[in-house]
Design goal:
The chain is built from 13 helices and 13 strands. The protein is α/β, with parallel strands linked by helices. It folds into two domains: about 190 residues, NAD(P)-binding Rossmann-like Domain (Rossmann fold, 3-Layer(aba) Sandwich), CATH 3.40.50; about 160 residues, 2-Layer Sandwich (Dihydrodipicolinate Reductase, domain 2), CATH 3.30.360.10. A seven-stranded mixed β-sheet has the order 4-3-2-1-5-6-7, with helices on both faces. It has a six-stranded mixed β-sheet with strand order 9-11-10-8-12-13. A hairpin with a 3-residue loop joins strand 2 and strand 3. Helix 3 runs parallel beside helix 4 and helix 4 runs parallel beside helix 5. The two termini are about 15 Å apart. About 45% of the residues are buried. The structure holds NADP nicotinamide-adenine-dinucleotide phosphate. The site of NADP nicotinamide-adenine-dinucleotide phosphate has 26 residues, from helix 1, strand 2 and helix 12.
Amino acid sequence: MGRYDLALIGFGGVNRALAELISQRGDSLAEELGFALRVVAITDLRAGSLVDSDGIDLAPLLAAEPGELKFAGLPGGSADPRNEWVIREVPADIVAEATFTNPTDGEPALSHVRWALKAGKHVCTTNKGPVALAANELKLLAADHGVGFEFEGSVLSGTPILRTAQRMFGGLEITGVQGIMNGTSNYILGRLEEGIDLSAAIVEAQKLGYAEADPTADIEGHDVQLKVMILANEILGADLCREDVFCEGISKITPEDARDAVSKGLRWKLVGSATRRADGTVDARVAPLALPGDHPLAGISGPVNAVAFHTDLLGTVTVSGPGAGRIETAYALLSDIIAIHQHHHADDDTAPLPRVLQETHRG
Ligand SMILES: NC(=O)c1ccc[n+]([C@@H]2O[C@H](COP(=O)([O-])OP(=O)(O)OC[C@H]3O[C@@H](n4cnc5c(N)ncnc54)[C@H](OP(=O)(O)O)[C@@H]3O)[C@@H](O)[C@H]2O)c1
C-alpha cells in the first residue's frame, strides 16, 4: 500500500484536527482509500518545529493542551518554526498549509505554498489568502512542477463547493453563484430577528465559538469578500482582485430592520455573489440583501452556510453544509489529499508513486 508523508504548516485548530483524524482513523482510512498517511514534520509559530522522517508519534502531541505544546527538547524538535527549511528540505509528499489568513498580501502562507510547489511537493490548504490573491500563479507553478495545488477548504470548509462545481457540472453553464458564506454573520442576523442588538449578538457568537475575538472580518464582510473572489475566479473564470469586489457588511442592520423584514416575509442575509454579465465580465459583490422567503438561501439559518449555483440547464442548484469548524475543515484537507491521489497517482503507471511504493521499488 502507498503512503503519503505530510508536513503540517501551522498547528492550530485545523491541522491539529487533521492530525487527530490520522491518529485516530488512520488504519480505517488507509483501508478505504488505498493509501496511508503519515506526518513527518510540523511547524507552528508558538510550538516551533518537529521533524521525524520515520513518522511523528502524534498521540502525545495531541494529548497536550494546544497552548502548552513546545517542540524544543524533543528529538527532531526546535523552538524555531524553520518553515522555509522544513517546506523545502524535509522529504515529504504533501504540505498542508493552515496558518492564519492574511487578506492583504496572503503572507506568510503565500511564500509557504510557493516554496512547497517549487520543491515539487503537493500542497493542500484551507487558507483563503493565497487562493484568493494568487491561485492562477500557484496553479501554474504546480503544473510546472508536476504537483497538485488543492484548496477546497478555502470556501465553506469541508462542504464541497469548488469540487461540486468543477467536477459535477460538466456540460452546464454556470451563470452565477450566490452564497451565505459566513456563519457568524448569519447567526447574528438570526439573533437580530429575535430582537437582540448587534453588540449582544456578537458577544453570544463569541461565547459559542463562532466569532473571533476581533469579529471585524465577519461583520464587515471581508471574509466573504475573499470567498467571492475565489468563487468568481475558480467557477466563472474571472481574474478579480479585492478592489473589484464591492463589500458591505451587516453592521448597519438593526433589530428593527430584521423584524420588519420578517413581518413582510423577507429575511436579511449577508450574500456574496458573482454573476456573469452579458458582456462576459463578472460582477462580484458582498452585501446584505432582504431575500424573499422562497429564495433558496432564505431558509439557511444559524452557522450553516450555503451556495446556490445558477445554471442554464438545471436552474438553481443549492449546496448547504458547515462553513467552519476544525474537524469539518480538516476534512477539506483530507478531501484535497484524496484529490491529489486521484489526479497524480491513482492508476497511473507513469506518475511518481507514493513514498512506500518508491521505497519498495528501490529496494
Ligand atoms: N477553523 C475553521 O473553521 C476554518 C475554516 C475555513 C478556513 N480556515 C482557515 O484555515 C487556516 C487555519 O485555521 P485554524 O482555525 O487552524 O487557525 P488557528 O487555530 O489560528 O491556527 C493557525 C496556526 O498557525 C500558526 N501560525 C501562524 N503563523 C505561522 C507561521 N508563520 N508559521 C507557522 N505557524 C504559524 C498559529 O500559531 P499562533 O497561534 O502562535 O499564532 C496557529 O497555531 C486559516 O487560514 C483559516 O482562515 C479555518
